[in-house]
């Protein structure tokens, strides 16, 4: 039997691949479940492969299905982006650059980049989204972001890293804490305190750096809380639930009852990297990278 392969087959496939449930996928697509099953069967027959393993309880992707899911998601994302870029070009705009960032980037390099871009590249638009390191890497690989700002030592080979800002580390303590700028000489002075740290999910490199700052001074911190959000960490410190170690630039933009004391006599530094996909096809990205080099 011969069928004409159409874009709708990919749409139906992706819905089932994401839901792994034919009824839920059918409801999402506003079609009947038997109709969806027929469309998937047609697609499998056209390709000559099995995409799903089905039984009464479960739907699973085959290896071929997992591969196709990744590629179809990329195709749809790129198609949506291309259509949006086409509309922008028609309106006289050079395009859009999608940027992901960690909170500390907004306190350091990112505002300067946006100001410079607005001066020399006024026809480029930007969309900004604060994301974790891992979420940025995933989005860059899927072409859902054009540029990221991360704290990672290694990324997949498809991505490029460039150091753009080096920061010191600061101890964050409640405003009423006995330590101050003059009396603070070593992180060992808070070795008996409870620590509130960025989770290793935020950045395993960054988490290891913080642990090494303490271990170099002869103690392992007692970690009571972890978070991926600076505001949450500062609020816990403000409430007297512990102390924290963060990049010094994070003290900008917050008005809370905490003190930031730069940690003396440590070799560790917090490096912020720009990250992008080597084969990114967005023509608006290259002038942004050139502007980044000039900062």
UniProtKB/TrEMBL annotation:
<keyword id="KW-0805">Transcription regulation</keyword>
<dbReference type="Pfam" id="PF03466">
    <property type="entry name" value="LysR_substrate"/>
</dbReference>
<feature type="domain" description="HTH lysR-type">
    <location>
        <begin position="5"/>
        <end position="62"/>
    </location>
</feature>
<comment type="similarity">
    <text>Belongs to the LysR transcriptional regulatory family.</text>
</comment>
<dbReference type="InterPro" id="IPR036390">
    <property type="entry name" value="WH_DNA-bd_sf"/>
</dbReference>
<dbReference type="GO" id="GO:0003700">
    <property type="term" value="F:DNA-binding transcription factor activity"/>
</dbReference>
<dbReference type="GO" id="GO:0032993">
    <property type="term" value="C:protein-DNA complex"/>
</dbReference>
<dbReference type="Pfam" id="PF00126">
    <property type="entry name" value="HTH_1"/>
</dbReference>
<dbReference type="InterPro" id="IPR000847">
    <property type="entry name" value="LysR_HTH_N"/>
</dbReference>
<dbReference type="InterPro" id="IPR036388">
    <property type="entry name" value="WH-like_DNA-bd_sf"/>
</dbReference>
<keyword id="KW-0804">Transcription</keyword>
<dbReference type="InterPro" id="IPR005119">
    <property type="entry name" value="LysR_subst-bd"/>
</dbReference>
<keyword id="KW-0238">DNA-binding</keyword>
<dbReference type="GO" id="GO:0003677">
    <property type="term" value="F:DNA binding"/>
</dbReference>
<protein>
    <submittedName>
        <fullName>Probable transcriptional regulator</fullName>
    </submittedName>
</protein>
């Amino acid at each position: 039997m011969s069928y004409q392969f159409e874009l709708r087959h990919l749409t139906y496939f992706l819905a089932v691949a994401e839901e792994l449930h034919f009824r839920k996928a059918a409801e999402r697509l506003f079609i009947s479940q038997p109709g969806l099953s027929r469309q998937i069967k047609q697609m499998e027959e056209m390709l000559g492969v099995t995409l799903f393993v089905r039984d009464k309880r479960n739907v699973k992707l085959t290896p071929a299905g997992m591969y196709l899911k990744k590629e179809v998601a990329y195709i749809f994302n790129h198609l949506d982006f291309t259509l949006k870029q086409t509309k922008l070009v028609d309106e006289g705009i050079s395009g859009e650059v999608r940027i992901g960032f960690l909170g500390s980037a907004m306190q350091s390099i990112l505002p300067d980049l946006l100001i410079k871009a607005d001066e020399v590249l006024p026809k480029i638009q930007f969309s900004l989204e604060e994301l974790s390191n891992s979420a940025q890497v995933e989005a860059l690989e899927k072409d859902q972001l054009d540029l990221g700002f991360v704290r990672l030592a290694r990324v997949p080979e498809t991505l490029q890293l460039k150091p753009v800002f080096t920061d010191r580390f600061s101890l964050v303590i409640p405003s009423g804490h006995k330590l101050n700028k003059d009396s603070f000489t070593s992180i060992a002075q808070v070795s008996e305190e409870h620590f509130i740290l960025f989770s290793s999910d935020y950045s395993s490199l960054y988490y290891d750096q913080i642990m090494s700052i303490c271990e170099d001074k002869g103690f392992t911190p007692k970690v009571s809380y972890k978070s991926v959000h600076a505001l949450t960490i500062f609020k816990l410190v403000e409430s007297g639930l512990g102390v924290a170690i963060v990049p010094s630039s994070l003290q900008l933009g917050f008005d809370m009852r905490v003190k930031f004391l730069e940690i003396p006599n440590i070799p560790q530094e917090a490096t912020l990297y720009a990250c992008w996909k080597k084969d990114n096809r967005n023509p608006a990205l290259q002038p942004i990278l050139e502007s980044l080099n000039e900062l």
